[in-house]
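Researcher: I'm preparing a figure for a lab meeting and need a structural model of a single chain. I don't have an experimental structure, so a prediction will have to do for now. The sequence is pasted below. Please return the structure as tokens so I can convert it later.
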Amino acid sequence: LEGVEMVSQTESGEQNVINYNGGAGVRLDGKAESSKNRISGNVFYHNWSLGIDLGKVGVNENDSGDADDGPNHLLNFPEKLKVIMREPRQGGVNQYYFLLSGLAPPQSLVELYVVDGAGEEQDLNKQGDETDYGEGETIFQRYMVPENLDEPFEIELPRGIKRAKKITALVIDANGNTSEFSKNIILDQDTDFDGI
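Model: Understood. Here is the structure written out token by token.
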């Protein structure tokens, strides 16, 4: 069966805004046959529960080998995410930058978002919801995982991303199945440059 596409045209500025729902922003609670549902580039904020919720209500933790099944095959979200803040380049003034590493299936698309409420909010406690799993409000980068990559991917984040922000990620596999959002990651001061 072909799934549903809920895709925003971010290049033209036409984005689906999914907010103020009494549960999840988008919920897929059908059987395993409910697959190939592509949810990409949308704006999620102020939903009572998760931005995207697959299967049972609440966060579906990743499983080894991604062997479980359900809506969108309960695709694992990007995992083992780690941010490293690199020192300013020579001659730069406060030109720090961040590298994000993590794991996702080969030939899948990783989408990175600033979380709900993190646009202007500097207080980390007020960014995102109480689950600490993302509602991606603003997409800021996409990364295609290479076909033969057998180690963590590494992405240099745009220089405009500021510290004291939470970000989250989702993954879309080659068939269009979309995961839930990952656990939020904090971009903050990394004084020893060993990762946060």
